Backbone:
């Protein structure tokens, strides 16, 4: 992994399957990265706020991921859990540069 102005290179875009999550470790944080069917790439904390389910293993539908443990529906855009459940996860900025996915906002 390398850095470019507080963005960290994490994976080649071509190595990220469409609608299949991928876990990466960045600065000791487990992050789930998703390449959506519309081409967007989203990165979020890899733990569901309910029971710490691994979101990278969840099912992707549109701009949402469903936690593999209890099926909580979580927005990959805002990090918010869909009602009637409550909670929110951290989202991260993503950018594609020269065919690589970079993550920002890791503070």
Residues:
């Amino acid at each position: 992994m390398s850095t470019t102005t507080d963005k960290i290179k994490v994976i080649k875009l071509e190595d990220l399957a469409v609608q299949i999550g991928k876990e990466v470790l960045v600065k000791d944080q487990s992050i789930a990265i998703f390449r959506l069917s519309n081409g967007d790439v989203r990165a979020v904390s890899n733990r569901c706020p309910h029971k710490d389910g691994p979101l990278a293993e969840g099912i992707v539908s549109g701009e949402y991921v469903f936690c593999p443990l209890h099926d909580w529906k979580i927005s990959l855009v805002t990090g918010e859990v869909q009602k009637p459940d409550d909670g929110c996860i951290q989202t991260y900025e993503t950018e594609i540069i020269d065919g690589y996915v970079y993550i920002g906002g890791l503070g």
